[in-house]
Amino acid sequence: MDKQNEKINSVHGGDIYSDGIFKGYELLDFSSNINPIGISNSFKENILEGIKNAELYPDIHYRELKANLIHYLNKAYITKENIVLGNGAAEIIDLVISCFKSITIAVPSFAEYEIDAKKWGCEVKFSTRSDTMELVYDDILNKFKTTDAVIIGNPNNPDGSLIDKEKFMPIIKYAEETGKTIIIDEAFIEFAYSGANSYISELKEYKCIFIIRALTKFFGMPGIRFGYGISKDNALISEIIRKQNPWNINCFAELAVKYVLRDEGYINKSREWIKEEINYLPKALEKISFIQKVYPTNCNFILCKLKNFNGSRLYNLCLEKGIVIRKASNFRGLDDNFVRFAIKDRDKNNKLVEALKDIEEAL
Ligand SMILES: Cc1ncc(COP(=O)(O)O)c(C=O)c1O
Questions:
Q1: Among the atoms of ligand 1, which is closest to the Cα of residue 156?
Q2: CATH of residue 314
Q3: Whether the Cβ atoms of residue 122 and residue 96 lie closer than 8 Å to each other
Q4: What mean pLDDT value characterizes the chain?
Q5: Residue 196 pLDDT
Q6: For residue 154, how far is its CA from the centre of ligand 1 (angstroms)?
Q7: Looking at residue 10, what is its pLDDT?
Q8: Is the model's pTM score more than 0.85?
Q9: Distance in angstroms (rounded) separating the CA atoms of residues 280 and 360
Q10: In the beta sheet, which residues pair with residue 85?
Q11: Which of 10, 14, 268, 329 is in Cβ range 3.0-4.6 Å of 324 for a Cys bridge?
């Protein structure tokens, strides 16, 4: 494997291409966190419109797309000037980080924050969560005092926890007073089904907040590659746009934004599914004797700490049963005692639980 592929494999989920697809068999993928309902019918039914649009360059200002996003976000204070569009949330994460000389990263978290910061020569400070995966708010504030920005997942990957809004407020106030930036990655926010969990409402009052979102996870479209950043800091939005290539969003992503964000049937069905399964799978995992701790989650994945067992061994045993799980040892702050499971539909969740029970019995 060349160095580039080694790097990609070492920081992201299970490699379903190497372990399954390229070998010609299907795997149950519990390593990536995508809505199992799949792509909405509203997208599929209108796919011909996308094919027709593929004959044209998209609108370079993406005016209709931004209007559709504003309609979805449903906040009168959000305008087109407050939005930057990306080829997945990953592009926005990369470019927003490139705008700062130093950053505090709350870890464990999505590996790209650190990779991007280092790539841009941005000095990094880490604020490690407690054993219960809670943010250490005082520590974040202290580290933020010597850096330009802070980035936190809400909900956070890999544990699914949300920011405690009350405890976080002094950090927001500090950023607002000093002109610093708080980047909040809400790539999974739609799974945390109460709108109050998002920082969208705080954008009205606080220019220091920059939110990242995507169609990738909740709308089940990782292949479409669509994400966006929202902030009242128009200078920061413009700085990112200046760094982008023109026409970075293709016509199928435009089509997706137009149809799936208005698809209430899909949204409601997805919310009902996550509500059911978030109450089911963690409880089933708690009954497995080699799982020491199931961290409470607010979205579609579950971090677990293993007891007298390591994640690499569990990964291999699950793979033998056709299931890919996420080893979590490569998240900064975690080790090989941790694994992460995606939440799927009931049938697949049961297959995972059965496989874990079989492994337990064979111990
Ligand atoms: C927290 C978080 N943010 C962003 C991303 C990247 O999303 P996208 O595929 O839209 O680039 C991921 C992908 O796993 C993620 O876990």
A1: 1
A2: 3.90.1150.10
A3: no
A4: 94
A5: 87
A6: 12
A7: 53
A8: yes
A9: 19
A10: 228
A11: 14
Query: Per-residue confidence at 7, pLDDT binned at 50, 70, 90?
Result: very low
**Is 58 near ligand 1, meaning CB less than 6 Å away?**
no
Co-location of 305 and 223 in the same domain = no
Domain boundary among 263, 285, 302: 263
Structural tokens at position 263? 């698809």
* H-only helix segments in the chain: 3-11, 16-19, 41-44, 47-53, 63-73, 89-97, 112-119, 137-144, 165-178, 234-243, 251-260, 264-286, 311-320, 346-362
Backbone angles phi, psi at 15, to 5 degrees: -95, 90
Parent domain of 336: 3-38+265-362
The answer on 275 and 166 residing in a single domain is no
Yes or no: say if 294 and 133 are a contact pair by the CB < 8 Å rule.
no
| Token pair belonging to 215 | 């169609």
- At 353, give phi and psi (nearest 5°): -60, -40
* pLDDT given at position 193: 75
Confidence grade of residue 26 (pLDDT, cut at 50, 70, 90): confident
290 CA to centre of ligand 1 in angstroms: 29
Could you identify the atom of ligand 1 that is nearest to the CA of residue 32? Answer: 14
pLDDT at 6 over 60: no
Last residue of a domain, one of 229, 263, 297: 263
Same domain, 233 and 196: yes
Task: Compute the average pLDDT of residues 167-187.
Answer: 98
> Can you tell me which residue has the tokens 């990609």?
8
Beta-bridged to residue 210, according to DSSP, are 183, 231
Number of domains in the chain: 2
* CA-closest residue to ligand 1 atom 9: 88
Tell me: do 186 and 233 sit in the same domain. Answer: yes
Percent above pLDDT 70 for the chain: 93
- What is the CATH classification number for the domain harbouring 150? 3.40.640.10
Query: Assign residue 179 a region: left if phi > 0, alpha if psi is -120 to 50, beta otherwise?
Result: left
CA 126–ligand 1 middle distance (angstroms): 19
